[in-house]
Write a structure and sequence with these properties.
The structure is a homodimer of 607-residue chains. Chain A is built from 18 helices and 31 strands. In chain A, the strands form five sheets. Chain A has a nine-stranded mixed sheet, sandwiched between helices. In chain A, strands 8-9-10-11-12-13-14-15 form an eight-stranded parallel sheet, with helices on both faces. In chain A, a hairpin with a 2-residue loop joins strand 4 and strand 5. In chain A, helix 3 crosses helix 4 and helix 12 packs across helix 17. The radius of gyration of chain A is 25 Å and the shape is elongated. At the A-B interface, helix 1, strand 5, helix 6, helix 7 and helix 8 of A face helix 1, strand 5, helix 6, helix 7 and helix 8 of B.
């Protein structure tokens, strides 16, 4: 099987195939496959009705009564009682969030009916630059689903307040847009806060515009990132992105209304920890806005959810459960994103389209029965029936920690006097934003101490890309941790080493164990590693586990964090990893220090 | 002003313009123009509400409350009480039908708010081949509206039963697709009747597929022509055209439903003589199908209507009058066709889009108040305020009649016996289809005679492209003509000379007068020219009249046909011109003879 992402069907092939289909239709001849006796979700007309589907080669011949197209050589699939729809599209996601390579993600995603994935390799790009993107593109080009990569146009997100492994700007764009499977530019986070960026670093706009204009001139797509901006700011963001951008960071009805009115494709996020569909959908259900630019996406999926619930089929199920008509819900994961992406050959069930299909028991339950890609059955009852070989990344991406050990002293904050008034990052569960809290902490031997009683822990970010070796230090509230430390190389978006703990000695131990591991997550207490998960690809993902193994490893680590370190928040590693995200409010931490995101300035931890 | 059709904005220009818009939005600065105090039709959200529109250079800055963007240098246009919408799009039309060149058509069309026109130069192509298409493309590239030409992939429509000036096939496609303003392939009439073509000339499919696959590979669009076909036939037609085709030949609700379900963009025709919107729209109003692939078009406009009623504004007005919500009706002439055409920069009012705007008094009346193209006011109260110079085609396209005079004998049908049983073409008013009627006619001196008493006239098509000189002969019913003859070089689709009359002597006189004129329409009686209209461009259009002059000339000729020749049908010249259209049922006439369109065979006039 030629991987669809890599396939370059030639014009002579297309001519031959189309003539052969016409021979079958008018000969009359017989289809290769007929799915008979079920219903279809016709996302073109917005209807669900009884119809067969006839396939030939990689394509759909037609829908409707296809009995005349059945001959002795036709494979007839009885789908009575079932519903067939176009293969689902995830309009925006990051493989890295599941800590799996694209191959292992695909293994479960495809089996549950997601045949097209728009993936943004933003995390590996922050660590390894274009070289990392190229490796992921290479992997994606060999997979049987359709992957559309969107390359970042800038790393780090906010220059001057954080340090990425490689700085990407317009100069890298022409090369990256030529990598296999790349069809556009990923979320333009560098101008996510237009007023702030314009006030501080207006030249960032020139760079972003250079990239997006280049992309547009080459027929590529641009993803926006327009969290909570309106009016002139929203217009400026849209214009920086080009004429038709998306936004997957819409969290309120008011935002959804404003963005739809301004031509933004609103990708309603329903990932593992961030769920915005129920709110965004109100623009359609309550305000009656046209739904054609509402799409669904996951952004960040935990491996546990992928293994237990599926991928876009679960998102569609939740959308139907929220009261949206089944045909409209399926449109949001098929024709709507396909239209946005300019894809004319997938996302609908019509003559001549690629036969990417998902057969389910019912749209309300979305349990996958059969999945086809390009006319070939790839999954049955939620399990792949094709071989997808394990994929191993080259060594070049597996040694991404470019620093030596850290000492407890480097993680400490000195202070004069018996106590210190400190600025604390307040964790907000299920959000990638944070609060800013004022607190008072004791000082011992001139060093500010954590307070487990008040749930005030140390937090630090240790530069690990070999540039400065700097350490940003501060305090955090909300994890409930009682002993030890947690360190990880997943730390948005520049992915330095983030560490939190009750004491700087265990914190240094955790960081140094992560370094020794070559990247990953380490739980550390009383001088010993409690548990660990190696993430050897850029410190973000692993080749060594499949999705189900990763799901159980992730569950094991979470349980250990809770039972042995006393952590109370769910999903502690993903929550911790977002505390360094420099583009979302309010108080964050980077390798440069505590970051006030409302002003893009580094502020002291102790006042 | 750079003609939009020809403009090739460079990437550095775009970068500069976008940065300048961002400077205005975030500076904050001031817009060039603000349309203040009115309502907008937001085709993105499907709403109509109060909002200003701010423009800068060629673009829309934003909509909403734009008062902060007004400065001393801003031109503020008071549009209170008015409604602004995106400039309208005619999704399918032929300039030739109005007998005007594109320049004169544009003069009225643009003034009434149609800023984008998809034009199919199918008629000039049948006469002059690629050379004619190139001349029209050259003209279109100099006009201020946005013209998208769709080149024919085959002339004649039905090889073997009619003779075109130049035979076009795949070999001409690469060259023609490179002409200025060309964005696709026009209606694929050659496979409009798939079963018939497949049975008689299956190789036509290979040729059409070669052209459409080439077009697709080069990012071009393909128009279908799927009149009254269903099931396997419709699927075969769609596949021959590629994956996403249009059809402007849909005349029943059932057809509209079937086509929408199969992914066809249904271009509801509301031209001068063929009106299908009221029927097609029932797929939406009665069956509840998604309206996003329903578009509006005119196909063929008479100059009289263009002058008296306007262009797409009149079509939208009629659609609203038919009970369609105003925002939905406007979508059908803006975002829907723009989406089909893959145009991301027109068809909506959003930041960064080209400022093509139509301000009207109300969506119910659609009287044009102001029209903008690319941020420049081009019309006010239905009159252009920019200069569009008259355009003269080169001499090379003005001498397209390649034959000498015809004799009365060549137009006669010999027969033995006192009477003859004849096959008669039955005119059906307001349709391009015809009936087949059996009749009995007297024979004098071995020649079959017409019968004005029974409204049975002679009809003939005289080959005029210099290939065969042949004459096809027959009889016609339905015009009510009492004396003389009418001849014209407008004669779909190959545009030989079609002539009808009460007597072959006057018919020969009419044909020879048309030849002497170098193409056009001639009314002839009792040995003299009664009236005539020169159409010197390919025998189809003229440079010499503007639309209003053409409207009165056309009205004058029609009046003369009625008062002096006794014609009773309205629009006699357009009706006559369609009696040679070989792709629409039932009995037609070409230069090869009477054509039975249901079997694509030439049949004798006398049995």
């Amino acid at each position: 099987m030629i991987p669809p992402s890599a396939s370059r069907t030639t014009e002579p092939d297309i001519r031959r195939e189309r003539r052969a289909m016409i021979d079958t239709l008018l000969g009359p001849g017989h289809a290769d496959i007929v799915l008979q006796g079920g219903e279809i979700v016709n996302v073109l007309s917005g209807e669900i009705y009884a119809a067969d589907i006839a396939l030939q080669g990689e394509y759909i011949l037609r829908t409707g009564d296809c009995s005349e197209l059945i001959g002795p050589e036709t494979t007839v699939i009885d789908v009575s009682g079932k519903v067939t729809m176009p293969g689902l599209i995830d309009a925006h996601m990051h493989f890295e969030s599941a800590m799996l390579n694209a191959t292992e993600f695909t293994r479960l995603s495809l089996a549950s009916g997601t045949t097209t994935v728009v993936a943004d390799p933003h995390e590996i790009a922050n660590v390894l630059g274009p070289a990392g993107v190229r490796e992921m593109a290479e992997e994606c080009s060999q997979l049987p689903n359709r992957i559309h990569l969107r390359v970042p146009c800038r790393t780090p997100d906010v220059p001057g307040v954080e340090t990425a492994g490689v700085d990407i700007d317009f100069n890298s764009i022409p090369e990256m847009l030529d990598y296999p499977t790349v069809d556009g530019i990923g979320e333009i986070q560098g101008v996510a806060a237009p007023k702030l960026v314009y006030a501080h670093t207006p030249e960032v706009f020139d760079d972003v515009i250079a990239s997006t204009a280049y992309a547009e001139a080459h027929g590529k797509i641009v993803d926006g990132n327009a969290a909570a901006i309106f009016d002139n700011e929203l217009a400026a963001h849209i214009i920086a992105g080009g004429t038709e951008i998306s936004c997957h960071e819409t969290t309120t009805k008011e935002e959804a209304v404003e963005k739809l009115r301004n031509g933004v494709f609103v990708l309603m996020r329903e990932g593992s920890t961030q769920r915005n569909m129920a709110e965004c959908i109100r623009a359609y259900t309550e305000e009656g806005l046209d739904s054609r630019r509402l799409c669904l996406c996951t952004d960040d999926m935990l491996p546990d959810d992928l293994a237990a619930k599926g991928h876009m089929n679960d998102v569609v199920r939740r959308t139907v459960a929220a009261g949206i008509g089944p045909a409209v819900a399926v449109q949001m994961a098929t024709i709507n994103p396909a239209t946005w992406m300019g894809l004319r050959n997938v996302g609908t069930l019509a003559p001549g389209k690629l036969a990417d299909l998902l057969v389910v028991d019912a749209v309300e339950t979305m349990n996958p029965a059969i999945v086809y890609v390009a006319g070939r059955q790839v999954a049955l009852d939620g399990e792949l029936v094709i071989e997808i070989p394990r994929y191993e990344y080259p060594d070049s991406v597996k040694h991404s920690i470019m620093r030596g050990p850290v000492s407890p002293e480097e993680l400490s904050i000195a202070h004069d006097g018996p106590t210190a008034a400190v600025r604390v990052i307040g964790l907000i569960p299920d959000q990638n934003l944070s609060a800013e809290i004022d607190a008072e902490l004791p000082v011992v031997d001139g060093i500010i101490q954590a307070s487990t009683a008040e749930d005030l822990l140390h937090i630090a970010v240790v530069e690990r890309h070999g540039h400065t070796g700097e350490v940003g230090r501060g305090f955090v509230h909300g994890f409930g941790m009682q002993r030890g430390a947690i360190a990880e190389t997943v730390s948005h978006d520049t992915h330095n080493i983030i560490v939190m703990g009750t004491h700087v000695v265990d914190m240094a131990g955790a960081v140094n164990a992560v370094i020794a591991l070559g990247g990953g997550i380490v739980l550390f207490a009383d001088g010993e590693v409690v548990d660990q998960l190696p993430l050897e690809i850029a410190g973000l993902m692993t080749d060594m586990l499949d999705a189900r193994e990763m799901a159980s490893a992730s569950a094991r680590l979470t349980a250990a964090a809770q039972s042995q370190l006393g952590v109370t928040v769910h999903g502690p590693f993903m929550h911790l990893a977002f505390l360094s995200l420099a583009t979302s409010p309010t108080l964050k931490i980077t390798d440069r220090g505590l970051l006030d995101v409302t002003s893009y300035t580094i502020v002291p931890a102790a006042m």
